[in-house]
Amino acid sequence: MLQSVKIEDGESAPAASQAERTSLIGLELPELAAVLGPNQPAFRTRQLFDALYRQQVADLSEISSLPISLRNQILSCYSADLPAIEHRYDSSDGTKRYLLGLCDGRTVEAVLMPEETRDTICISSQVGCPVDCKFCLTALMGLERNLTAGEIIGQVLLIMRENGLKAADTRLNVVMMGMGEPLLNLDAVLKASRLLCDSTGIAISPKRITVSTSGIVPKMDELGRAAVRPKLAISLNASTEEQRQELMPITRKYHLAELMDACRRYPLRTWEKLTFEYVLLGGVNDSDADAKRVVRLLANLNCKVNLIALNPGPGIPFETPSDHRVAGFQAIVKASLPCFVRKPRGRDIFAACGQLKRVNTELVQVE
Ligand code: SAH
Ligand code: SF4
Prior knowledge:
Blueprint: E1 22-23, H1 29-36, H2 42-54, H3 68-77, E2 78-79, E3 84-90, E4 96-101, E5 107-114, E6 119-122, E7 126-128, E8 143-146, H4 149-163, E9 172-176, H5 186-197, E10 209-213, H6 217-225, E11 231-235, H7 241-247, H8 256-265, E12 274-280, H9 288-297, E13 303-309, H10 323-334, E14 339-341
Parallel strand pairs: 1-2, 6-9, 9-10, 10-11, 11-12, 12-13, 13-14
Antiparallel strand pairs: 3-4, 4-5, 5-6, 7-8
Helix pairs in contact: 1-2, 4-5, 6-8, 9-10
Bound molecules: S-adenosyl-L-homocysteine and iron/sulfur cluster.
Iron/sulfur cluster binds at residues 129, 131, 133, 136, 138-139, 180-181, 214, 235, 354.
Protein backbone atom coordinates (compact mmCIF):
# COMPACT_ATOMS: atom_id res chain seq x y z
CA MET A 1 0.00 0.00 0.00
CA LEU A 2 1.22 3.47 -0.81
CA GLN A 3 1.31 6.04 1.89
CA SER A 4 0.72 9.61 0.87
CA VAL A 5 3.04 12.03 2.65
CA LYS A 6 1.45 14.98 4.41
CA ILE A 7 3.29 18.14 3.56
CA GLU A 8 1.25 20.89 5.21
CA ASP A 9 3.47 23.42 6.98
CA GLY A 10 4.47 22.48 10.45
CA GLU A 11 3.18 18.96 10.19
CA SER A 12 5.75 16.26 9.98
CA ALA A 13 5.25 12.56 9.50
CA PRO A 14 6.74 10.31 12.19
CA ALA A 15 10.27 9.32 11.22
CA ALA A 16 10.62 5.71 10.13
CA SER A 17 13.80 3.77 10.78
CA GLN A 18 15.89 2.93 7.71
CA ALA A 19 14.56 -0.63 7.59
CA GLU A 20 10.93 0.48 7.80
CA ARG A 21 11.18 2.91 4.92
CA THR A 22 9.52 1.74 1.73
CA SER A 23 11.70 1.98 -1.37
CA LEU A 24 10.29 4.14 -4.14
CA ILE A 25 12.21 2.07 -6.71
CA GLY A 26 9.63 0.26 -8.84
CA LEU A 27 6.96 2.96 -8.70
CA GLU A 28 5.66 4.54 -11.91
CA LEU A 29 4.51 8.15 -12.32
CA PRO A 30 0.92 7.79 -10.97
CA GLU A 31 2.20 5.98 -7.89
CA LEU A 32 4.89 8.58 -7.30
CA ALA A 33 2.22 11.27 -7.64
CA ALA A 34 0.23 9.48 -4.92
CA VAL A 35 3.32 9.46 -2.69
CA LEU A 36 3.72 13.22 -3.10
CA GLY A 37 0.04 13.78 -2.37
CA PRO A 38 -2.62 15.87 -4.10
CA ASN A 39 -1.14 19.29 -3.35
CA GLN A 40 1.97 18.97 -5.47
CA PRO A 41 2.19 20.11 -9.10
CA ALA A 42 2.81 17.38 -11.69
CA PHE A 43 6.33 18.58 -12.43
CA ARG A 44 7.40 17.55 -8.90
CA THR A 45 6.46 13.96 -9.75
CA ARG A 46 8.59 14.22 -12.90
CA GLN A 47 11.50 15.54 -10.84
CA LEU A 48 11.21 12.60 -8.46
CA PHE A 49 11.02 10.13 -11.38
CA ASP A 50 14.06 11.75 -12.99
CA ALA A 51 16.07 11.53 -9.77
CA LEU A 52 15.18 7.88 -9.13
CA TYR A 53 15.57 6.48 -12.61
CA ARG A 54 17.66 8.84 -14.78
CA GLN A 55 20.06 10.21 -12.17
CA GLN A 56 19.75 7.01 -10.11
CA VAL A 57 20.40 8.72 -6.77
CA ALA A 58 21.46 6.36 -3.99
CA ASP A 59 19.72 8.44 -1.33
CA LEU A 60 16.61 10.62 -1.46
CA SER A 61 18.51 13.37 0.39
CA GLU A 62 20.51 13.84 -2.85
CA ILE A 63 17.46 15.09 -4.78
CA SER A 64 18.38 18.75 -4.88
CA SER A 65 15.59 19.64 -7.34
CA LEU A 66 12.91 19.14 -4.64
CA PRO A 67 12.30 21.77 -1.93
CA ILE A 68 13.94 20.76 1.32
CA SER A 69 10.65 20.49 3.24
CA LEU A 70 9.18 18.12 0.64
CA ARG A 71 12.40 16.11 0.55
CA ASN A 72 12.36 15.70 4.31
CA GLN A 73 8.73 14.65 4.27
CA ILE A 74 9.43 11.93 1.71
CA LEU A 75 12.56 10.86 3.53
CA SER A 76 10.59 10.21 6.70
CA CYS A 77 8.73 7.29 5.09
CA TYR A 78 10.59 6.35 1.92
CA SER A 79 14.00 5.44 0.54
CA ALA A 80 15.62 4.76 -2.84
CA ASP A 81 17.04 1.49 -1.55
CA LEU A 82 18.08 -1.29 -3.91
CA PRO A 83 18.55 -4.95 -2.96
CA ALA A 84 21.61 -5.32 -0.69
CA ILE A 85 24.71 -7.22 -1.79
CA GLU A 86 25.18 -10.13 0.60
CA HIS A 87 27.93 -11.74 -1.38
CA ARG A 88 29.71 -11.41 -4.69
CA TYR A 89 31.32 -14.39 -6.38
CA ASP A 90 33.91 -13.61 -9.05
CA SER A 91 34.60 -16.08 -11.85
CA SER A 92 37.95 -16.52 -13.53
CA ASP A 93 36.22 -15.49 -16.81
CA GLY A 94 35.14 -12.07 -15.46
CA THR A 95 31.54 -13.07 -14.66
CA LYS A 96 30.24 -11.77 -11.32
CA ARG A 97 27.41 -13.48 -9.47
CA TYR A 98 25.63 -11.36 -6.86
CA LEU A 99 23.69 -12.83 -3.96
CA LEU A 100 21.20 -10.08 -3.10
CA GLY A 101 19.21 -9.62 0.09
CA LEU A 102 15.58 -8.47 -0.17
CA CYS A 103 13.68 -6.57 2.50
CA ASP A 104 11.97 -9.72 3.86
CA GLY A 105 15.32 -11.45 4.37
CA ARG A 106 15.00 -13.68 1.29
CA THR A 107 17.80 -13.74 -1.24
CA VAL A 108 17.96 -13.81 -5.01
CA GLU A 109 20.71 -13.88 -7.60
CA ALA A 110 21.79 -11.70 -10.50
CA VAL A 111 24.80 -12.08 -12.78
CA LEU A 112 26.99 -9.68 -14.79
CA MET A 113 28.71 -11.14 -17.84
CA PRO A 114 31.22 -8.68 -19.31
CA GLU A 115 32.30 -9.43 -22.87
CA GLU A 116 34.53 -7.66 -25.35
CA THR A 117 31.72 -5.96 -27.23
CA ARG A 118 28.87 -5.99 -24.71
CA ASP A 119 27.90 -6.42 -21.07
CA THR A 120 24.94 -8.60 -20.16
CA ILE A 121 23.08 -8.42 -16.86
CA CYS A 122 21.06 -11.56 -16.10
CA ILE A 123 18.31 -10.95 -13.55
CA SER A 124 15.80 -13.05 -11.60
CA SER A 125 12.02 -12.68 -11.70
CA GLN A 126 11.07 -14.96 -8.78
CA VAL A 127 12.72 -16.33 -5.64
CA GLY A 128 13.10 -19.96 -6.77
CA CYS A 129 10.88 -21.33 -9.54
CA PRO A 130 7.69 -23.42 -9.55
CA VAL A 131 8.39 -24.96 -13.00
CA ASP A 132 9.96 -28.30 -12.41
CA CYS A 133 12.47 -28.64 -15.27
CA LYS A 134 14.57 -31.73 -14.63
CA PHE A 135 17.92 -30.23 -15.68
CA CYS A 136 17.72 -26.96 -13.71
CA LEU A 137 19.16 -26.29 -10.26
CA THR A 138 16.72 -23.44 -9.55
CA ALA A 139 13.85 -25.95 -9.87
CA LEU A 140 15.11 -27.75 -6.78
CA MET A 141 14.27 -24.68 -4.67
CA GLY A 142 10.59 -24.61 -5.59
CA LEU A 143 8.88 -21.21 -5.58
CA GLU A 144 9.40 -18.99 -2.55
CA ARG A 145 7.73 -15.88 -3.93
CA ASN A 146 7.37 -13.51 -6.86
CA LEU A 147 9.66 -10.49 -7.05
CA THR A 148 8.15 -7.01 -7.22
CA ALA A 149 8.88 -4.72 -10.18
CA GLY A 150 11.17 -2.72 -7.85
CA GLU A 151 13.14 -5.83 -6.92
CA ILE A 152 13.45 -6.78 -10.60
CA ILE A 153 14.77 -3.39 -11.78
CA GLY A 154 16.72 -3.01 -8.52
CA GLN A 155 19.01 -5.83 -9.68
CA VAL A 156 19.80 -3.91 -12.88
CA LEU A 157 20.29 -0.57 -11.11
CA LEU A 158 22.55 -2.13 -8.51
CA ILE A 159 24.80 -3.90 -11.01
CA MET A 160 24.97 -0.74 -13.15
CA ARG A 161 25.98 1.31 -10.10
CA GLU A 162 28.52 -1.24 -8.83
CA ASN A 163 30.21 -1.51 -12.22
CA GLY A 164 29.85 2.03 -13.57
CA LEU A 165 27.61 0.86 -16.45
CA LYS A 166 25.49 3.33 -18.39
CA ALA A 167 22.39 2.56 -20.45
CA ALA A 168 23.36 5.21 -23.01
CA ASP A 169 26.28 2.97 -23.75
CA THR A 170 24.71 0.49 -26.15
CA ARG A 171 26.89 -2.30 -24.81
CA LEU A 172 24.40 -2.98 -22.05
CA ASN A 173 21.94 -5.89 -22.40
CA VAL A 174 19.50 -7.28 -19.87
CA VAL A 175 18.20 -10.85 -19.91
CA MET A 176 15.47 -12.15 -17.61
CA MET A 177 17.03 -15.59 -17.49
CA GLY A 178 17.99 -15.84 -13.84
CA MET A 179 15.91 -17.53 -11.19
CA GLY A 180 12.23 -17.98 -11.91
CA GLU A 181 9.72 -18.16 -14.72
CA PRO A 182 9.13 -14.52 -15.75
CA LEU A 183 5.78 -15.18 -17.42
CA LEU A 184 4.38 -16.53 -14.14
CA ASN A 185 5.07 -13.06 -12.73
CA LEU A 186 4.06 -11.16 -15.84
CA ASP A 187 2.49 -8.04 -14.29
CA ALA A 188 5.68 -7.25 -12.36
CA VAL A 189 7.86 -8.18 -15.36
CA LEU A 190 5.89 -5.83 -17.64
CA LYS A 191 6.02 -3.01 -15.11
CA ALA A 192 9.78 -3.57 -14.72
CA SER A 193 10.14 -3.52 -18.52
CA ARG A 194 8.27 -0.20 -18.79
CA LEU A 195 10.58 1.29 -16.16
CA LEU A 196 13.75 -0.10 -17.76
CA CYS A 197 12.72 1.17 -21.22
CA ASP A 198 11.36 4.62 -20.27
CA SER A 199 13.45 7.06 -22.30
CA THR A 200 13.15 9.69 -19.54
CA GLY A 201 14.44 7.23 -16.95
CA ILE A 202 16.73 4.21 -17.13
CA ALA A 203 16.38 4.27 -20.94
CA ILE A 204 17.46 0.79 -22.01
CA SER A 205 16.06 -0.04 -25.46
CA PRO A 206 13.52 -2.92 -25.59
CA LYS A 207 15.77 -4.30 -28.33
CA ARG A 208 18.38 -4.94 -25.65
CA ILE A 209 16.13 -6.70 -23.12
CA THR A 210 15.10 -10.36 -23.45
CA VAL A 211 12.63 -12.34 -21.41
CA SER A 212 12.91 -16.13 -21.50
CA THR A 213 10.03 -18.52 -20.88
CA SER A 214 9.56 -22.24 -20.41
CA GLY A 215 6.36 -21.85 -22.49
CA ILE A 216 3.45 -20.46 -20.47
CA VAL A 217 1.20 -20.22 -23.54
CA PRO A 218 -1.59 -17.83 -22.39
CA LYS A 219 1.00 -15.47 -20.93
CA MET A 220 2.93 -15.41 -24.21
CA ASP A 221 -0.24 -14.09 -25.86
CA GLU A 222 -0.61 -11.48 -23.11
CA LEU A 223 3.04 -10.43 -23.49
CA GLY A 224 2.47 -10.01 -27.22
CA ARG A 225 -0.32 -7.51 -26.51
CA ALA A 226 1.81 -5.29 -24.23
CA ALA A 227 2.75 -1.91 -25.67
CA VAL A 228 6.22 -2.00 -24.09
CA ARG A 229 7.76 -5.44 -24.05
CA PRO A 230 11.18 -7.06 -24.21
CA LYS A 231 12.19 -9.57 -26.88
CA LEU A 232 11.01 -13.13 -26.33
CA ALA A 233 13.09 -16.27 -25.95
CA ILE A 234 11.54 -19.72 -25.59
CA SER A 235 13.29 -22.59 -23.83
CA LEU A 236 12.55 -25.41 -26.26
CA ASN A 237 14.91 -28.05 -24.89
CA ALA A 238 13.28 -31.04 -26.60
CA SER A 239 12.33 -32.16 -30.08
CA THR A 240 9.23 -34.27 -29.38
CA GLU A 241 6.11 -33.92 -27.27
CA GLU A 242 7.02 -36.92 -25.06
CA GLN A 243 10.62 -35.89 -24.54
CA ARG A 244 9.57 -32.39 -23.55
CA GLN A 245 6.93 -33.69 -21.15
CA GLU A 246 9.64 -35.68 -19.40
CA LEU A 247 12.25 -32.96 -19.26
CA MET A 248 9.85 -30.05 -18.70
CA PRO A 249 6.66 -31.32 -17.01
CA ILE A 250 4.98 -27.94 -17.69
CA THR A 251 4.52 -29.41 -21.20
CA ARG A 252 1.78 -31.67 -19.81
CA LYS A 253 -0.22 -28.47 -19.25
CA TYR A 254 0.90 -26.53 -22.33
CA HIS A 255 1.71 -29.11 -24.99
CA LEU A 256 4.61 -28.63 -27.38
CA ALA A 257 2.15 -28.35 -30.29
CA GLU A 258 0.28 -25.53 -28.49
CA LEU A 259 3.58 -23.82 -27.69
CA MET A 260 4.59 -23.88 -31.34
CA ASP A 261 1.17 -22.45 -32.30
CA ALA A 262 1.70 -19.64 -29.77
CA CYS A 263 5.10 -18.94 -31.34
CA ARG A 264 3.59 -18.82 -34.82
CA ARG A 265 0.94 -16.28 -33.81
CA TYR A 266 3.31 -14.18 -31.66
CA PRO A 267 3.27 -10.59 -32.98
CA LEU A 268 6.92 -9.92 -33.80
CA ARG A 269 7.99 -6.32 -34.41
CA THR A 270 9.78 -5.53 -37.67
CA TRP A 271 13.22 -5.69 -36.03
CA GLU A 272 12.54 -8.78 -33.96
CA LYS A 273 13.21 -12.52 -34.17
CA LEU A 274 12.19 -15.21 -31.69
CA THR A 275 15.05 -16.93 -29.91
CA PHE A 276 14.82 -20.63 -29.09
CA GLU A 277 17.10 -21.94 -26.36
CA TYR A 278 17.97 -25.61 -26.39
CA VAL A 279 19.84 -27.19 -23.48
CA LEU A 280 21.79 -30.18 -24.79
CA LEU A 281 21.70 -33.18 -22.46
CA GLY A 282 24.23 -35.88 -23.41
CA GLY A 283 22.53 -38.97 -24.87
CA VAL A 284 19.04 -37.58 -24.14
CA ASN A 285 18.09 -34.82 -26.60
CA ASP A 286 21.32 -34.24 -28.53
CA SER A 287 21.15 -36.73 -31.42
CA ASP A 288 21.20 -35.87 -35.12
CA ALA A 289 17.56 -37.00 -35.26
CA ASP A 290 16.72 -34.45 -32.51
CA ALA A 291 18.48 -31.71 -34.47
CA LYS A 292 16.48 -32.58 -37.62
CA ARG A 293 13.22 -32.53 -35.65
CA VAL A 294 14.15 -29.12 -34.20
CA VAL A 295 14.61 -27.81 -37.75
CA ARG A 296 11.16 -29.16 -38.72
CA LEU A 297 9.51 -27.71 -35.60
CA LEU A 298 10.91 -24.26 -36.32
CA ALA A 299 10.29 -24.25 -40.07
CA ASN A 300 8.72 -20.97 -41.27
CA LEU A 301 9.41 -19.15 -37.99
CA ASN A 302 11.48 -15.97 -37.99
CA CYS A 303 13.91 -17.18 -35.35
CA LYS A 304 17.37 -18.15 -34.24
CA VAL A 305 18.53 -20.99 -32.00
CA ASN A 306 20.90 -20.77 -29.04
CA LEU A 307 22.37 -24.10 -27.96
CA ILE A 308 23.47 -24.45 -24.35
CA ALA A 309 25.51 -27.50 -23.34
CA LEU A 310 24.22 -28.60 -19.95
CA ASN A 311 25.78 -26.77 -17.04
CA PRO A 312 26.15 -29.45 -14.40
CA GLY A 313 25.19 -29.19 -10.77
CA PRO A 314 24.62 -31.33 -7.69
CA GLY A 315 21.35 -33.26 -8.00
CA ILE A 316 21.11 -32.84 -11.79
CA PRO A 317 20.93 -36.34 -13.32
CA PHE A 318 22.25 -35.45 -16.78
CA GLU A 319 25.59 -35.17 -18.53
CA THR A 320 27.18 -32.43 -20.57
CA PRO A 321 27.62 -33.59 -24.18
CA SER A 322 31.08 -33.47 -25.78
CA ASP A 323 32.09 -30.38 -27.77
CA HIS A 324 32.11 -32.62 -30.83
CA ARG A 325 28.43 -33.61 -30.31
CA VAL A 326 27.45 -29.97 -29.72
CA ALA A 327 29.17 -29.01 -32.98
CA GLY A 328 27.42 -31.89 -34.82
CA PHE A 329 24.00 -30.74 -33.56
CA GLN A 330 24.77 -27.14 -34.45
CA ALA A 331 25.87 -28.05 -37.97
CA ILE A 332 22.50 -29.69 -38.73
CA VAL A 333 20.41 -26.82 -37.36
CA LYS A 334 22.68 -24.19 -38.90
CA ALA A 335 22.06 -25.53 -42.38
CA SER A 336 18.48 -24.18 -42.06
CA LEU A 337 18.49 -21.54 -39.31
CA PRO A 338 20.88 -19.16 -37.54
CA CYS A 339 22.23 -21.31 -34.70
CA PHE A 340 24.76 -20.34 -32.04
CA VAL A 341 26.39 -22.15 -29.15
CA ARG A 342 26.14 -20.15 -25.94
CA LYS A 343 29.50 -20.00 -24.26
CA PRO A 344 29.21 -21.11 -20.63
CA ARG A 345 29.91 -18.16 -18.34
CA GLY A 346 30.88 -18.39 -14.71
CA ARG A 347 30.42 -22.15 -14.36
CA ASP A 348 33.12 -22.15 -11.68
CA ILE A 349 30.98 -19.91 -9.47
CA PHE A 350 27.61 -21.52 -10.33
CA ALA A 351 26.56 -18.46 -12.31
CA ALA A 352 25.82 -20.17 -15.63
CA CYS A 353 22.31 -20.89 -17.01
CA GLY A 354 20.30 -23.12 -14.72
CA GLN A 355 22.91 -23.01 -11.97
CA LEU A 356 21.36 -20.30 -9.82
CA LYS A 357 20.45 -21.89 -6.53
CA ARG A 358 22.38 -19.76 -4.10
CA VAL A 359 25.17 -22.30 -4.13
CA ASN A 360 28.03 -21.12 -1.99
CA THR A 361 31.06 -21.88 -4.14
CA GLU A 362 33.32 -21.62 -1.16
CA LEU A 363 31.63 -24.72 0.23
CA VAL A 364 30.72 -26.70 -2.86
CA GLN A 365 33.23 -28.38 -5.12
CA VAL A 366 32.28 -28.24 -8.78
CA GLU A 367 32.64 -31.58 -10.58
N1 SAH B 1 12.57 -19.81 -16.52
C1 SAH B 1 12.97 -19.26 -17.73
C2 SAH B 1 14.19 -18.38 -17.63
C3 SAH B 1 15.27 -18.84 -16.69
S1 SAH B 1 16.14 -20.30 -17.15
C4 SAH B 1 13.18 -20.34 -18.76
O1 SAH B 1 13.20 -21.50 -18.42
O2 SAH B 1 13.28 -19.99 -19.94
C5 SAH B 1 17.23 -19.65 -18.40
C6 SAH B 1 17.74 -20.70 -19.39
O3 SAH B 1 18.60 -21.64 -18.74
C7 SAH B 1 16.63 -21.54 -20.01
O4 SAH B 1 16.74 -21.54 -21.41
C8 SAH B 1 16.86 -22.92 -19.46
O5 SAH B 1 16.41 -23.91 -20.35
C9 SAH B 1 18.35 -22.93 -19.26
N2 SAH B 1 18.83 -23.91 -18.29
C10 SAH B 1 18.20 -24.36 -17.19
N3 SAH B 1 18.98 -25.26 -16.55
C11 SAH B 1 20.12 -25.38 -17.27
C12 SAH B 1 21.33 -26.14 -17.10
N4 SAH B 1 21.50 -26.94 -16.07
N5 SAH B 1 22.28 -25.98 -18.02
C13 SAH B 1 22.13 -25.15 -19.07
N6 SAH B 1 21.03 -24.39 -19.27
C14 SAH B 1 20.04 -24.52 -18.37
FE1 SF4 C 1 12.25 -22.55 -13.86
FE2 SF4 C 1 13.48 -21.91 -16.15
FE3 SF4 C 1 14.68 -23.51 -14.35
FE4 SF4 C 1 12.60 -24.41 -15.75
S1 SF4 C 1 14.60 -23.80 -16.57
S2 SF4 C 1 12.89 -24.66 -13.53
S3 SF4 C 1 11.34 -22.58 -15.89
S4 SF4 C 1 14.15 -21.38 -14.06
